[in-house]
Recover the amino acids of this structure.
């Protein structure tokens, strides 16, 4: 969980030097290079995988990292947790998962927490960036629905082929929407490339490797509460590594959001959409 939480600060460091779309292109390129040799051929699943890659690559990660350029890491780490209530809502709509009044109330808590954070004066002028991150959270939940409909597939195979399909989409988007990429790549220092390697190796290979290892040995309800540590590490990493300030709004809003997300996770139905993950 620490690896995934620290990713907000690490990614923000990389995004200070590289445009977000080319940054993500290189990230997916490295993930594909690392995982593709071990991935299975998903016969009959090519089109759904392409759809998932568009949702995660173009609609989730592109908007999340574009928002992260302006937004501080701590705020982004909390706001992105809205992916859990969004996922619960879509699961109720598409898969008839029961919400219940407790989970419904928890969703209100989660959204109220982000609203409290948005009320900070220091976020004035950053509402577009916050909106991008919230939109990214919603797209993560859409990807959950797509993955649920995909059926059984190995986690590393899923990550590998999503990366293969997302990479050219992001490269094309970068060519159309960004400029100065080549100069940025030449001028970027060690930490920018470290951020890319961290996301591919630490977040995907090590982070997911550990997650799948735990899934094989423990019940889902035993390990899901650990996901609540991700925003905690995200906030702490922003404070420690980026010098961000811990404000009253951030603390109160964070507690409301994480508390709401915690109730949703702990009371989730046995049959629910799988985690789309942090590809």
């Amino acid at each position: 969980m620490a690896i995934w939480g620290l990713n907000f600060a690490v990614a923000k460091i990389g995004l200070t030097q590289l445009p977000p779309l080319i940054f993500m292109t290189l990230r997916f390129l490295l993930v594909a290079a690392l995982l593709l040799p071990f991935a299975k051929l998903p016969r009959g699943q090519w089109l759904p995988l392409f759809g998932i890659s568009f949702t995660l690559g173009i609609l989730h990660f592109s908007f999340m990292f574009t928002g992260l350029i302006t937004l501080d890491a701590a705020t982004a780490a909390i706001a992105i947790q809205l992916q859990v209530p969004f996922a619960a809502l879509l699961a109720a709509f598409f898969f008839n998962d029961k919400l219940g009044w407790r989970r419904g109330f928890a969703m209100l808590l989660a959204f109220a927490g982000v609203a409290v954070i948005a009320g900070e004066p220091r976020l004035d002028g950053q509402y577009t960036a916050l909106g991008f991150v919230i939109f990214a959270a919603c797209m993560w939940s859409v990807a959950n629905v797509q993955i649920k409909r995909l059926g059984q597939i190995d986690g590393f195979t899923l990550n590998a082929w999503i990366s293969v399909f997302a990479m050219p989409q992001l490269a094309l988007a970068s060519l159309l929407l960004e400029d100065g990429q080549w100069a940025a790549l030449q001028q970027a220092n060690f930490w920018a490339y470290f951020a890319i390697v961290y996301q591919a190796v630490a977040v995907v290979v090590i982070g997911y490797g550990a997650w799948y290892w735990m899934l094989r040995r423990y019940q889902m309800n035993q390990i899901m509460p650990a996901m609540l540590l991700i925003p905690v590490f995200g906030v702490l990493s922003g404070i420690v590594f980026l010098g961000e300030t811990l404000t009253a709004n951030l603390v109160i809003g964070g507690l409301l959001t994480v508390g709401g997300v915690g109730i949703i996770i702990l009371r989730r139905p046995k049959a629910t959409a799988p985690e789309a993950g942090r590809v």
The chain has 13 helices and no strands. The two ends are 14 Å apart (CA to CA).
